[in-house]
Design the sequence.
């Protein structure tokens, strides 16, 4: 039977806030692990929860690690865990990173921007894993046995929701923290 297992490694928006007051729901920024029964591993957003998730994946997955990272949008709270994501540093690991068509920058430029030497001691191009970038528009495609459907959301930057289906089970990641007000400025979907 096809099925998906979901584990939350980070649920906060904007800034990590670990401590006693966030112990119930967690203090890390957005990061969700989805495992399909065929072994496909999907990571939704790569916030600060990605550090602990990366360690867990290296310990529990067959090597070399093959992952699919889906980024809702490239604001920092959705990508700031990537420089600490252990699988990205391992030779032979393969990371497929998906995100909406960029705003002023490509997906690769957005990911590497936070890893410029002025901000971080390891540059993106120095990582040992194989990284593939896919910029998405609305539509659908398969990753393993998981059907992924994408839909633009109303947010302050190009943002995509992901609906994942596998054998009758569905999961949706569609809730950015800072939605535009109904009478605020309108964003047009790229393309």
Sequence:
């Amino acid at each position: 039977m096809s099925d998906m297992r979901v584990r939350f490694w980070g649920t906060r928006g904007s800034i990590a806030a670990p401590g006693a007051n966030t112990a119930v729901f967690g203090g890390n920024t957005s990061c969700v692990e989805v495992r399909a029964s065929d072994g496909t591993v999907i990571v939704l957003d790569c916030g600060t929860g990605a550090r602990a998730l990366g360690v867990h994946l290296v310990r529990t997955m067959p090597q070399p690690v093959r992952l699919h990272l889906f980024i809702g949008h490239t604001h920092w709270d959705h990508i700031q865990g990537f420089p600490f994501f252990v699988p990205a540093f391992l030779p032979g690991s393969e990371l497929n990173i998906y995100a909406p068509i960029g705003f002023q920058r490509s997906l690769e430029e957005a990911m590497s921007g936070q890893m410029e030497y002025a901000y971080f001691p390891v540059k993106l191009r120095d990582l040992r894993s194989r990284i593939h970038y896919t910029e998405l528009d609305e539509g659908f495609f398969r990753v393993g046995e998981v059907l992924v459907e994408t839909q633009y959301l109303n947010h302050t930057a190009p943002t995509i929701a992901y609906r994942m289906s596998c054998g009758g089970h569905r999961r949706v990641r569609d809730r950015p923290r800072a939605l535009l007000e109904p009478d605020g400025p309108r964003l047009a979907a790229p393309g």
About this structure: The radius of gyration is 16 Å. Strands lie at 4-10, 31-36, 41-44, 66-70, 94-100, 130-136, 139-143, 146-153, 159-166, 169-173.
